Amino acid sequence: MNIILLSGGSGKRLWPLSNEIRSKQFIKIFRREDGSYESMVQRVYRQIKSVDAQATVTIATSRTQVSAIHNQLGDEVGISVEPCRRDTFPAITLATAYLVDVMHVDPSESVVVCPVDPYVEDDYFEALKALSAQADKGEANLVLMGIEPTYPSEKYGYILPESAGSVAMVRSFKEKPDAQAAAQYIAQGALWNGGVFACKPSYVLKKAHELMDFAGYDDLFARYDTLQKISFDYAVVEHEPKIQVVRFAGTWKDLGTWNTLTEAMEENIVGKGVLSDTCSGVHIVNEMDVPVLAMGLHDVVISASPEGILVSDKEQSSYIKPFVDGFEQQVMFAEKSWGSFRVIDVESRSLTIKVTLNAGHSMNYHSHQNRDEVWVVVSGRGRTLVDGVEQEVRTGDVIRMPAGCRHTVMAETELKLIEVQIGSDINVHDKQKHAMEREWRAEGQE
Amino acid sequence: MNIILLSGGSGKRLWPLSNEIRSKQFIKIFRREDGSYESMVQRVYRQIKSVDAQATVTIATSRTQVSAIHNQLGDEVGISVEPCRRDTFPAITLATAYLVDVMHVDPSESVVVCPVDPYVEDDYFEALKALSAQADKGEANLVLMGIEPTYPSEKYGYILPESAGSVAMVRSFKEKPDAQAAAQYIAQGALWNGGVFACKPSYVLKKAHELMDFAGYDDLFARYDTLQKISFDYAVVEHEPKIQVVRFAGTWKDLGTWNTLTEAMEENIVGKGVLSDTCSGVHIVNEMDVPVLAMGLHDVVISASPEGILVSDKEQSSYIKPFVDGFEQQVMFAEKSWGSFRVIDVESRSLTIKVTLNAGHSMNYHSHQNRDEVWVVVSGRGRTLVDGVEQEVRTGDVIRMPAGCRHTVMAETELKLIEVQIGSDINVHDKQKHAMEREWRAEGQE
User: Fold this and answer.
1) What does A218-249 look like in DSSP terms, one character per residue?
2) Chain B residue with minimal CA distance to A275?
3) pTM for this entry
């Protein structure tokens, strides 16, 4: 099975765990059997591989997510990187071209396209296989998954099939209706459209060539910023007469808000927290080192991260976005290709961060024009390169890097540093990359 | 007017703002007219001085609070330090002996004794003056303040006066009753006993000499740990036939729980926070640098500090103590005589703290046996003394102190340091004090 997972934007609706650079699909919130936690992408990827170990998985995403994907899924997964944000039609076309031209998938071998973030069980992936098999038959150009509705939701589009069988031709689509209309559609046998479909790559590429002029993946990638913003529904689905739908009646949850996300959590507390016995329906998701104590609350979600603290009635939590848009704040935590960092102190002329480098990784060789930096190694072993001089470092070592000094560090084991930045104008743009004066033995550098 | 303010224990009921070493009376939570915030002790002290600029104020407290009191009130206030915790009779006796022997107050000049933490207005202090004047008349040995009850509370003792006048002899006392009995007492004209009284120092000392053998303040201080734990009520009030009560009908609030504390707050938010318009009766007290967002909550208090995060229904907040007792946690924030510190990162073999030294202050000259330390100056100017070598330091400077190295720093301006402690056994007991090898120009050192 070939799968394209669409990994979308920043998701402020799950603030303070998601922010401009960390998306909800990377939050480790689901408990594994061994007691550790996995994120939405890790869960979905694990499920795909358990149903089809040979599946070719490609994630269509933006540049900002590449590090997080490699950190969480390893280097084997295919990533189709959108150079900039366009809509779903350019994104699906680019990922399809990647599959054919880079991954060498046969263009007549069907591919399944689905969002990366629904909360589903293994039967969903079995249904994807059925979808793929149906598309291979060639009875229709597109085969959609139709999810059996559990209530007259206003959040989804509806698919009206021509018959009640497990596979049927699509009669018509209905955009997100109000609850009353939704109930009528459901009475007529309508299904939710979860944005999941299968088709042949050759079909997507043919449709793309009708609208855009490009030679192949590389060419499409190069001119991606010139493409029109247009959705797959609008560009393709609405004009296609031969569409089939395959029914799916299993678990399917859209975890877009705290309300729905907490429904999918098996435990009420992730991280340090205590609920008094006068609490009911309360969830705590705490990324901080100190405890959260909740007393006498009902149907409330509490989440704390280095970005801030949310305490919300669960129903109300879906209205979070305008509040988060109003926070003007520097990013306090980020995952990078080489590890992660977290801001631990802010002064007017200094910034102190904790840097964690994964074993075998290093930063770019770089310098800053307007700030001095000091590293104190608080855990692990590695090697620094400072103005061309290489040095072994371990817990307790101190490295000083005045402004202009070129520097990097490579982690032999996991390496943790306290980095103090000193200067009157500390900002993320003050960073110059340099070529190294000597061969550097680090692996995994970028 | 002479006043003894009784400044009590740790107050876990206001966790996470109060903890083992920071008591509720030092939390800066009340807005001043200039927009800054003051604590309970600062508010009470300011109010006393505005009503009677000449008042002699002595705070009876434990050793752990001395630094916080000096930081918040300056060096002029008198402090009677209890060498260890006894009950109110030894504490009041020690403070009275301090007033007479150290502050040279005339033993026949009345003194007012009251708790440091009620939330009151200026009329309360006018009432204290009346109490003091009444005690000076010598019509009774003790003059109590009787607070006009606003509801049949079960939290207070009741005073039954012989008449309804503004000054009356006390007929009897009633210990904390149930609500029904309280209503009956109130119908009979009973008043709340807020633990406020005036009397002559000579009276307290006479009663003390009947129970204890001591020569004066110094002698009492020296043998304080041998004294019996006994309350002033039990030792004195219950046996005294000549007690008067003076009525007080003004504002008087006991701010012992989050519920009552938030009632006294003029604003719903102290620190960074946002309330959605679907919130009602919600208070946020946030000491962290990141925002708290509250949505769809009613009658809830949210408080965040380096110690943890509390989210509680206001009514329920009075049951907090057993939960806080259950937290096994190192102290994450403390005020010291020289400034304050805050833990910002914890690893198995390192601890990173931010140290703020007040201008003109320095630490003890000390060393650690089992840990190295590194200071990075992130703000201000000062001088370090390291193994006898003095050095000027300013923002950006790095000082390394291997285990065994003697060190201190003196702040010329307010000085902020990032201190990284490195070692396999980091604990607060690993600290040896040393005499200095040279004259040190620091003021305010302790």
Assistant:
1) HHHHHTGGGS----HHHHTGGG-S-EEEEEE-
2) B323
3) 0.81
